[in-house]
Every structure is written in structure tokens, then in C-alpha cells.
Amino acid sequence: MLDPIINFLNDIFWGYVLVYGLIAVGLFFTIRLRFVQFLHFGEMFRAVVGSKANDKAGITPFQALCTSLASRVGTGNLAGVAVALYLGGPGAIFWMWVVALLGMATAYSESTLAQLYKIKNQNGDYRGGPAFYIARGLKAPWAGALFSVCLILAFGLVFNAVQANSIADAAAGAFGFDKLWVGIALAVLTGIVIFGGIRGVAYVSQVVVPIMAGIYLLVALWVVAMHITEVPDMLGLIVRSAFGLEAAGGGIAGAMLNGVKRGLFSNEAGMGSAPNIAAVATPDPHHPSSQGFVQALGVFIDTILVCTATALLILLSGVMVPGSELTGTPLTQAAMTVHIGGFGNAFIAIAIFFFAFTSIIGNYTYAENAMTFLKLGNFPALTVLRLAAMGMVIWGSVETVATVFNAADASMGLMATINLIAIVLLSGTVAKLTKDYVDQRKAGKVPTFQASDYPELDGKIDHSIWNRQDPG
């Protein structure tokens, strides 16, 4: 009975609102913020490298970047890219690049707002995200509550089942493991991490994510080096196919549609997910925009680096031939086997485990923030959430129920739509913050947020957080 309603909502959200809305909002912020993601690209690295941990109420910017990457870099970077290539041809990768480059401005904006409107919970720890800037900045707590419920359903529960399903499939295919036992083991590992709360996830992420992404990118760089003479032609093929100048692939419409969709799924810019962990960070410099730069870098790493690495691995392997039915994870595994031999299948299975497992624990941090907004941040309520997340991991490892996954897509579509409307309505604040930050840099100063310069924010932000010159 619910299927027709859910499918209708998904057709609206994913066929029209989000595909065009996310691009439009990315273009809007790119222009309004004067190409901030290009002209101040170096600031993204400075805001991460200069991380301090003096303020015990938050995590470091590097931990926030790694935790957001834990969620962003998932099976979409392996299986999703393969699907985009299968359905849209090489040109789909070009449109993934476009979505990411525009999305960097969106990610910067939503995470800057999340920093600005963050609060301290009952334990004195920073919490925040779209629900908080919707409720405080727009005076619409009802919309913040709706956003939070959708976030918990999609990221806290169902998407963890999706990631677990990918791990179980890969482990069964590569090593012959029983899916149920894979799910149980995965749930235990998940529980060990998430019962440590957001700080526990941050500590694990800062160790696992750089190693995980680093090894994968090193293998890809090795493959590219071995085929360096073919790379220019391959990049040319990607660009030509994007504009329908190659017979192969799905033409310009197919390349654009599939590249845009897979890009949006992968980097999550504008979805309202990553700002939840951006708000938990202690920014360095002590200005909301610095965490915006950090999260913009996350989009760049996810799509421009990791997704491109997967695309080149597949395209340089020669396994994509007309008439082939290979797609998703099997296509990526077949490509890797060409490059590194029989271990390729196992390598992708291992990569999927780490990419998907870190997505599970990263997704949890978003849900915990949403629980705080709903006044459910106490230990008993969080324990229920954590046990439910573990249960969904076990369930997802052995089941694939389309209705549930479609419902999660609808939840994410609704939360993303709410978030996009909110950040556009608050874009004036983002523009003022950005100008303030850039002007201070140009004057040779370390950018510092002064609440007194923003009288319009009185009663909307926590002055005890922002009135200090230094977070230490």
C-alpha cells in the first residue's frame, strides 16, 4: 500500500527536486561566494593542518574531516562509479566532477552554518547541524524536528543496512563467508565503536580513514603510472563522452543524468549530513568558515580523488566492453583483477569492508546529533539508537527489502530538500561570514569570529562559545 506513495515521492525528489536543486544551489553559492572553493582552495588544507585540540568540548578539524569522509566514502565510490560508467558511459565521470566542484561551495555553506549555530549538550560537548540552524536561524523548530526524524531513519538506521549488505555480499563472493556471521561480526565491531559516542567514532576515523583511502589511492596511482601513456586519451574520452561526442555510453543525457545522480549520492554535498559532524569540531582558526573549508575539502577528496581513481581503474582495465552485463561491485572487482591479478577480487572486498564499515560508524554520528536536537541525547535513548543500528547491520547483511530502502531514499530526499531551502534562506549570513574571513586573511590576521560584529544573530547563537578570542 505504501509502495506507490514512496515511489511517487522518490520520483519527485530524485527525478526533479534534488538533481536540479542541488546543482542550482551549488551554482548559486559558487557565484554568491565569489568562487570561494576555487580562489581559496589552499585555505581548505590550512584549516585541517592547523588543527588544535585545546577545546575539549569538541573534536579536531582533522577528526571532523575523517569522520565526514567515513560517511561520504562508501560503496558508492566503488560500486556506484561502476554503475555510472555502465549506464552513462565514460562521460558520466565528467558530470560527477562538475557536481563535486559546485557541491564544494554547498558543503562549505552548510558546514559554516552548522558551526555558527552549534550548542553545548548536557555533557558540555558541541552538537549541531541543519536541525539547529533551521530552528535557530529560521525560527522553524518544527522543520528542524522533521529533518532530525528523517536523518535518524535514513542515516542512523536504514543506510547502515545497505552498507552491511554490500559488505556481506563482497565477503560471501570473495571468501565464501556466511552472510549472517558476517553481519553479526560487523554488528559487534560497530557496537564497540559507537558505544564510545561521537568522540569514539572520531578517534577510530582519524586512524582508519587516511589508511583506507591512502592505500586505495596508492594502488590507483600505481595503475595509472603503469598506463601513463593511455591516461591522456582516457581523460579525453571522458570529456568527449560527456558532450555526446563519442558513440559509446548513454549519450549526453545519459552521461549527465547518471553522473549527476551518482555524484550527489557519493559526496552528499547539500544533503545535510556532514554538517552534523562539522558542528562538533573546534574550528582552527576560531571562525565558523574554517570548518566550512574543511568540509569542502571532504567533497573534493571523495569525488575528485577517490571516485576518479575507481573510474580510471575500470576504464584502463579494458573490461568495459559493448554488450557486457558487468556492473556495480563485480565490474570494479573484474577491473582490479586485470591490474593486480587474482588478489584483485579480494582487494575490492577488503576495500568495500573498510569503506562501508566507516560509513556505518560515520552515519551514526549524524543520528546522535539529531537525537540531541530532539531532546533524546540521554544515555538510555542513545543506547536504544545504538542497539537499533547494530540490529539493522545484522538484518541488512542477510536481507534486501526494496520498500525499506526506497523509504530511506524518500527520507533522505525530504531532509535534503528542507536543508537546501534553509541554506539558501540563510545565504546572506554565509556571504557575510565568508567576506569577514577572507578580509581578515587579506589583512594578515588570523580570522577570528566576533559575535559583536553580527548583532542580527543576537538570541540565535551561543555567545559563550563564540565570544572567546581563542578556544583554548
What topology emerges from the helices and strands here?
Layout: H1 3-32, H2 36-39, H3 41-49, H4 61-72, H5 79-88, H6 91-116, E1 119-120, E2 126-127, H7 130-137, H8 141-175, H9 179-194, H10 197-226, H11 231-242, H12 251-267, H13 275-278, H14 288-315, H15 328-340, H16 343-373, H17 379-398, H18 402-425, H19 427-442, H20 463-466
Helix pairs in contact: 1-6, 1-18, 3-14, 4-10, 4-14, 4-16, 5-12, 5-15, 6-11, 6-12, 6-14, 7-8, 8-9, 8-16, 8-17, 8-18, 9-16, 9-17, 10-14, 10-16, 14-15, 15-16, 16-17
What labels would you give this structure?
Amino acid/polyamine transporter I, mainly alpha, 74% helix, two-stranded antiparallel ribbon, 20 helices, 2 strands
